[in-house]
């Protein structure tokens, strides 16, 4: 998830009119539609949340736990909905972390539980 967010940022960051944003173009409605779309593709969109979710999942995994399967299923549904709305895009990549989270939950359920 972190890799997807970083790649998304790398692709769109060079297109962003950072100086206009910082000057208030978004706030005062001076930004054109491309500028607004780029804003929603970067800081206004899923990038920050996806990094945080990726860091959280990594931390939980390092602690020997797993996130509930519904997290993977929701990510998969979100990606599928986005692909159905806009067609093949980077949203296809949501299948990777979603599948890994679902598979981790399934394999964790199959392991014999040990008492400590």
Provide a descriptive summary of the structure in words.
The chain crosses the membrane at residues 37-58, 67-85. It is a single chain. With 116 residues, the chain is an all-alpha fold. The protein has 2 domains: 1-47, no CATH class; 66-116, no CATH class. The protein is built from 6 helices and no strands. Helix 1 runs antiparallel to helix 4 (47-62) and helix 5 runs antiparallel to helix 6. The longest helix has 18 residues, at 69-86.
Question: TL;DR?
Answer:
By secondary structure, the chain is mostly helical. 66% of the residues lie in helices and 0% in strands.
Percent strand: under 5%
Q: Which radius of gyration do the C-alpha atoms yield?
A: 18 Å
Head-to-tail CA distance between termini: 33 Å
Name the helicity range: 55-70%
Largest sheet: none
Along the chain, the helix and strand elements come as: HHHHHH
Helix/strand/pairing category: mainly alpha
Total discrete domains: 2
User: Residue ranges: pLDDT <50 for 5 or more in a row?
Assistant: none
Mean pLDDT: 89
Could you tell me the number of beta strands?
0
Count of DSSP H/I helices:
6
What general form does the structure show? elongated
């Amino acid at each position: 998830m972190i890799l997807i967010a970083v790649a998304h940022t790398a692709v769109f960051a060079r297109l962003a009119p950072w100086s206009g944003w910082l000057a208030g173009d978004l706030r005062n409605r001076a930004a054109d539609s491309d500028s607004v779309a780029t804003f929603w593709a970067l800081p206004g969109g899923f990038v920050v949340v996806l990094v945080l979710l990726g860091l959280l999942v990594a931390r939980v995994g390092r602690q020997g736990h797993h996130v509930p399967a519904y997290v993977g299923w929701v990510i998969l549904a979100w990606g599928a909905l986005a692909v159905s709305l806009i067609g093949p895009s980077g949203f296809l990549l949501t299948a990777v972390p979603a599948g890994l989270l679902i598979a981790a939950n399934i394999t964790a359920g199959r392991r014999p539980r040990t008492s400590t």
